[in-house]
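Appendix B. One record, verbatim.
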Amino acid sequence: QVQLVESGGGSVQAGGSLRLSCAFSGDTFSDYAMGWFRQAPGKERKFVAAISPGGNSPYYTDSVKTRFIISRDNAKNTVYLEMTNLKVEDTAVYYCAADDPRITGGYEFWGQGTQVAVSS
């Protein structure tokens, strides 16, 4: 069974940076596309960024395109989200997700989330 464990969240001031990590276990990491999502208080969970199994073709929601970078290290079974120039509106619980391309229907596995709080 795939398990995902996020880390790296915390509290920062606007303009600061954080690097989130998500450790993958339970299957072959390089078979999976990976994504980051976030859920702000009182709002629905939304897509942030995703990366293909081979690490190419990352894509982002428009609001983070120039500030966040998603990457992966298939040797370490880990996906990262480098967040810079953080804004108050980036405050949310950030979730890592794994998508098995052999199964239709989107992301099958989710982590427990890590809190990011950005203050002005």
